[in-house]
Amino acid sequence: MKPRSLIVFAILFATNSFASYAAQNGEIHRVGTQINSSAASYKNSQQDGDGVMSLYLYYNYNIDDTWALELGVNGGAEITDWDCKKINNRKFKCDRNNELLFGIGADEVSFGNFVVAAKGQYQLTDNSHFYGKLGGQYYDYKIANNNIKMVQEYGLGLFAEAGWQYDWSNGLAFNAGLQYMDMGDLDTRSLSIGMSYRF
């Protein structure tokens, strides 16, 4: 999906009338963590095996019942792929699958992001709602082969996420969503799951 399409979707989502979601008992803070399993592309490369994993930590400040400000940090790297073969009933032999990344001969990618975003929420039931996030992020990434740097870039890019969240009365919440990060020539499209706590 193109970044413009994501921006249009987020604006339409945000301008619709949101139902109220409760910052229960005046709880206006939320901290959370997400694990992201992503397909990455560099300069629009499209090939199997370009997977990355990342960990996203965030803080939300609820401005009102619908809107929140989010600050987050994210860090990720390539997924090591293993080929395992059964030798007998008790033994397996596993070798690292050293497929090269992005069609450029790279075997390593690592990245970090600092995110600032607006979050809007649409209540479905007393405890669950859809959410959307749109903002920007400062990124820094490196692509390498055998620890020899091939590319290192930093700059500003788009951050977008949409998903579903379920809040329990004890302050814990579970969420699942789709996340997009535009890091210039590198971008990630992620399936995200996470837990958070409001207070």
Automatic annotation (TrEMBL):
Sorted UniProt keywords: Signal
Gene3D superfamilies reported in the protein's UniProt record: 2.40.160.20
SUPFAM superfamilies per UniProt: OMPA-like (SSF56925)
Outer membrane protein beta-barrel domain segment(s): 14-199
The keyword Signal belongs to this UniProt entry's keyword annotation: yes
Signal peptide: 1-22
Name of a matching Pfam family: OMP_b-brl
Protein name stated in the entry: Porin family protein
Organism from which the protein derives: Pseudoalteromonas caenipelagi
